[in-house]
Amino acid sequence: MAESENIVAETAEKIFADLADAQTINRDEKGEWKAPLWQALSDAGLPLAWVGEDCGGSGASLAEGFSVLSAAGRFAVAVPLAETMLAGWLLAQAKIASPGDEMTVVPASPKDRITVNADGSLSGRARGVPFAKVAKHLAVLASDAKGDCSIALVDTGKCRIESGLSLGGDPSDIVTLDKVQPIAIKPAPAGFDQTRLMLMGGVTRSLQIAGALESMLEISVRYSNERVAFEKKISKFQAVQHNLARLAGESAAALAAATSAADAIANANSFDDEVFLEAVAAKIRCSEAAEKGGGIAHQVHGAIGFTIEHILHRYSLRALAWRDDFGSESYWAVELGKLVCKRGADELWPLVASR
Amino acid sequence: MTAALRFDPIRLPSECEQLRKEVRAFLAEEIAAGTFDPHQPNREDTDVPEFSRKVGARGWLGMTWPKKYGGHERSFLERYVVTEEMRVANAPTRRFFVADRQSGPVLLKYAPEHIKMEILPRICRGEICFAIGMSEPNSGSDLFAAKTRATKTDGGYLINGTKIWTSSAHIADYMIAIFRTSPPTKENRRHGLTQFLVKMKQPGIQVNPIGQITGQYEFNEVVFTDHFIPDDHVLGEIDGAWKQATSELAYERSGPERFLETYYVLTELVRAVGNKPDTRSAEGIGRLVAQVHTMRRMSVSVAGMLQAGKEPVVEASIVKDIGTIWEQQLPHRVRELAAFVEETATNRETLEKQLDFAIKTAPKLTIQGGTTEVLRGIIARGLGLR
């Protein structure tokens, strides 16, 4: 990890530690913690980390941005930081400057399509768009009748938004664009398509899930060393130890898969089958880890972890919810399986061993 | 963080890619020449001395060891590449694998110079085979319960007792074994074990084969009756083998052999499914590929830590724990998906035979080299729970 990468991630980590403590958030029913946190993140230039200085951002590297997302996952942060970073990154692909407020990306699911009409307006419907309700702007990827992709900046106020909530309790909305005129629209660079956007989103979510699992492991270990049952700490029971060892395994697998994918994307010269494998494998394996690891964390915590007062749900439910954004694990597994079969049996190992 | 687990995204350096090509070309030649059949993991005799010598001649044994002992002073990552290519091709590595992975490094660390000069170059040439004598009847994973006694005598030790589950003892030239030189103390039940280099095929050693449910014979019982071992065959500290044995195990636990032993069934499933899979097959294959990719990235990461001189004991244990469970479940998952394979798939018979063998192999995978339960104990200790 480069020195500068550490500094960006450390800045993020410090802001989260000061302003996004899970216990404080839990007690703040009105959500008053959100404004100061967003202000601090914006002051540090983090939401537009992936936007070049020429487009109004702070020009951090992809790797630096990814390390911010890992930290955001460790704090299970529920402000649209990842979404704004992704949106800024998408707009920057077409050299569209980013406004300095909350943004999100449309579409957020591989099967939803936004089309560019002949008059340059946009139409379509996208489900499960994270934080659309609170975003001031949308970064939209749309395609025209010929299949050519464009990237557009859209005022959220011009769209119809039906509110929804994710498993983790965060906005997950339906966005409908009915001949919406974008603020700016430009052709996407050659080779850039919806799959690219979904994979970038998928790796973002993978890092967040891996971070949430790190925190679940930490608080579960801590709790097991505090809670006494049958006259001893539950951490001394072999069955509990083995469950926590399995949680460590799932956390480790998620961390390895997500950081490997982020590293692959940050250093990719072209978007080939190998980068595809890295990105989808991360989403698949992290999603599986969220299910298995989250289950163990709750088991270790007993009934207390199931209560609204306890902080565990911040991590467990968000990790589960993040599985659904930018393509679920089953969606990507089908796509990966198709790719593997198309390449043929003798090309499987060379693909797996390519890096 | 309580448990600062690290799995940095280590990439294999470019010299590894050239080496990988060389290994693949070599294996393809050997397959073409009929030395072994990659589609027959269930062959009865996995000991192919000629193959070992060829691998040695290529410079792929003792890769990381000093040149003066016949080694090649290459990196752990280069060794990693050779290991995974051999494993995936189902190459007959039985004769040299244990010596290369484990016994050689132990000798390098603890053997007297003249023994190193005598034995290590022969390992590098692929001439000799090693076995590991740790388990005993009723001890198994509980290494410190070992009872086989080494009694001091003139110029050496007399060995009496029995080792068991000893892979390759029937073909081995040497064994590195732990024997009891003193009773355990009250303060330290690990005290009193010593590591020895045993020359096999000598008086006082009887090797009895133990059949396995796969139809193969790899395991043995090794009975020692007044077997003499000279003083210069003591490895390391008298009564202190426990310290040595635990660091040895880190090498044994994170390699690609810990998640690729049944990998062939996945390749064969992809072949049987063909290039236009139905949704169920595609999803099943996609998940398995995502999982094996993740395992491999973890394993490469640990190899990178070993290369950097670290001792990733917890990370290595995690790789072995989830790796062996994965390779154990793999044939069962492939079997479920194979139920939808067309009758006309040309490799259907091969796939079924391989599945039959892999399913029979599976139960041992989470036992060899430290059981799941023991590994989870080590991970729990690393998490600060014990």
Number of strands of chain A: 10
Question: Gyration radius of chain B, to the nearest Å?
Answer: 21 Å
Largest interface: A-B, 59 and 58 residues
What overall form of chain B do the CA principal axes indicate?
globular
> Which ranges of chain B are low-confidence, i.e. pLDDT below 50, for 5 or more consecutive residues?
none
Distance between the termini of chain B: 17 Å
> What is the fourth-level CATH superfamily of the largest domain in chain A?
Butyryl-CoA Dehydrogenase, subunit A, domain 2
Can you tell me the CATH topology of the largest domain in chain A?
Answer: Butyryl-CoA Dehydrogenase, subunit A, domain 2
SSE ordering of chain B: HHHHHEEEEEEEEHHHHHH
Find the structural class of chain A using helix and strand composition.
alpha+beta
Question: Per CATH, what is the topology of the largest domain in chain B?
Answer: Butyryl-CoA Dehydrogenase, subunit A, domain 3
Q: Largest sheet of chain A, described in full?
A: 4 strands, mixed
Number of domains of chain B: 3
Domain Acyl-CoA dehydrogenase/oxidase N-terminal (chain B): 15-127
Domain Acyl-CoA oxidase/dehydrogenase middle (chain B): 131-226
Cofactor (chain B): FAD
Protein name (chain B): Acyl-CoA dehydrogenase
Structural overview:
Chain A: Keywords: FAD, Flavoprotein, Oxidoreductase. Chain A: InterPro entries: AcylCo_DH-like_C, AcylCo_DH/oxidase_C, AcylCoA_DH/ox_N_sf, AcylCoA_DH/oxidase_NM_dom_sf. The complex is a heterodimer of chains A (355) and B (386). Chain A is globular, with a radius of gyration of 20 Å. Chain A has a 4-stranded mixed β-sheet, covered by helices on one side. A 4-stranded antiparallel β-sheet of chain A has the order 2-3-7-6, with no helix packed on it. In chain A, strands 9-10 form a two-stranded antiparallel sheet. Chain A folds into 2 domains: 1-187, Butyryl-CoA Dehydrogenase, subunit A, domain 2, CATH 2.40.110.10; 194-354, Butyryl-CoA Dehydrogenase, subunit A, domain 3 (Up-down Bundle). With 355 residues, chain A is an alpha+beta fold. Chain A has helices at residues 3-19, 22-27, 34-43, 62-74, 81-93, 194-226, 238-266, 273-301, 312-322, 329-343, 348-352; strands spanning 103-106, 114-116, 122-130, 137-143, 149-155, 160-162, 172-180, 184-187, 228-229, 232-233. In chain A, helix 6 packs parallel to helix 8 (273-301) and helix 8 (273-301) packs antiparallel against helix 9 (312-322). Helices cover 46% and strands 13% of the residues of chain B. Chain B folds into 3 domains: 14-128, Acyl-CoA dehydrogenase/oxidase, N-terminal domain (Butyryl-Coa Dehydrogenase, subunit A, domain 1), CATH 1.10.540; 132-240, Butyryl-CoA Dehydrogenase, subunit A, domain 2; 254-383, Butyryl-CoA Dehydrogenase, subunit A, domain 3. The mean pLDDT of chain B is 94. The longest helix of chain B is centred in the last third of the chain and has 29 residues, at 279-307. Chain B contains 11 helices and 8 strands. In chain B, the strands form 2 sheets. In chain B, strands 1-4-5-8 form a 4-stranded mixed β-sheet. In chain B, strands 2-3-7-6 form a 4-stranded antiparallel β-sheet, with no helix packed on it. Chain B has helices spanning 14-32, 49-57, 76-88, 94-110, 113-124, 241-253, 264-273, 279-307, 313-338, 348-365, 372-382, and strands spanning 130-133, 149-153, 156-164, 174-180, 193-199, 205-210, 219-230, 234-235. With 386 residues, chain B is an alpha+beta fold. Chains A and B meet through helix 6, helix 7, helix 8, helix 10 and helix 11 of A and helix 3, helix 7, helix 8, helix 9 and helix 11 of B.
